[in-house]
C-alpha cells in the first residue's frame, strides 16, 4: 500500500469481517506481481479415521513424491455454470452464449436477489428490468446488465467490456486450466510417473523436448505441460495430439490462439505436472471438543494467546499438517492427495454434518 500509514490500516480492523490486518512494516520498494515466492499453510484435518501407518505413508508420499499439480476446484467457480464454459464461449467469439451463460437461471444455492434477477432476464431479456431486481450492482451480472443498457443488445462485446479486465481474463484462464487438468490426467494415465521422450522440460524460460538419449537425465519432477496459447510448444507424443483433439472438439484452432480482441489472445505458459511441497511437517493430535482450535493462528501469536491445551487421549483424532507451496499451486490439491478422497465443497459439507450431529 502506497503512502498509507499503519495506523490508518489498523483502524480498519473495527469494521472488517473474518480477517484482521497487522504486523505492518514500512519499506522503500513496493511489492510487484511475480515476486511472491510461495505460501506456507497450516491445515488441520479433523476426525480422521485412518491408522497411524496410513497417515505416515500418505504424508511421506506427499513429501517425497508430491502431488499432481492440478488447478483447484476454486479456479472453476462455485456455481452451476463453471467459469471455463464462459471462457470457451469468449474464445469461440460466441458472445450471445457468453451473455446467456452469465445471466441465465441456474440450479443450486444462490442469493435470492440473483435468482429474481435471472428469472426476470429469462422472462423479458430486458436489462433495465433485470437490474431493478438486483440491489447489489457490483457483481458480474450487474456489470454486464449495465453494459447491455448502455451499449444495447447488439453490442455484447462492449457491454462485456464493462466488467473489470481481471474478471474477464479469469474466464479464459479458467478454460486454459480446464484443458491443462484434462491433459495432465491423460499424460499420467498414458506414461505414468516418469519422464518419457517427447515430454517437455524448461531450460531457463524456454521449453525443450526430452530426446530419447537424454531421458535418464530427467525425472517426472522436471516435466512441464503447456497451457494452450500461440507462444507455446506441445509434447511430441500422444498428448500433443490430444491437445489438438480437445480444442477441435471445442471449435478452437490450437494453431491460431490469437483473438480478434487483443485482450483475449492467449500466449500460453508452462506448468510443472508434479509439485513436491517444501517444509512438510505433521503430527496427530487428540481432542474432545470439536469446537476448540487445535493450533495457534498468526493472529493468536500477535495477541500473545497461549497454545491450546489438548487431552492426551481424546475422543477424536486430527492430523495437523504444515507445508509450503510455490505460487499458483493449490493447497486443496495437496490435501486431496493426502486424503485420497473428493474435496469438493458439496462432499466435505456432507461429511461435517454427519459427524457433528
Automatic annotation (TrEMBL):
It catalyses: a uridine in mRNA = a pseudouridine in mRNA; a uridine in tRNA = a pseudouridine in tRNA. One of its GO terms (cellular component) is nucleus. It comes from the Eukaryota. InterPro entries: PsdUridine_synth_cat_dom_sf (IPR020103), PsdUridine_synth_TruD (IPR001656), PsdUridine_synth_TruD_insert (IPR011760), TruD_catalytic (IPR042214). The keyword Mitochondrion does not apply. Residues 66-276 form the TRUD domain. Keywords: Isomerase, tRNA processing. One of its GO terms (biological process) is tRNA processing. GO terms for molecular function: pseudouridine synthase activity; RNA binding. NCBIfam families: tRNA_TruD_broad. Belongs to the pseudouridine synthase TruD family. PANTHER family: PSEUDOURIDYLATE SYNTHASE 7 HOMOLOG, TRNA PSEUDOURIDINE SYNTHASE D. This is Pseudouridylate synthase 7.
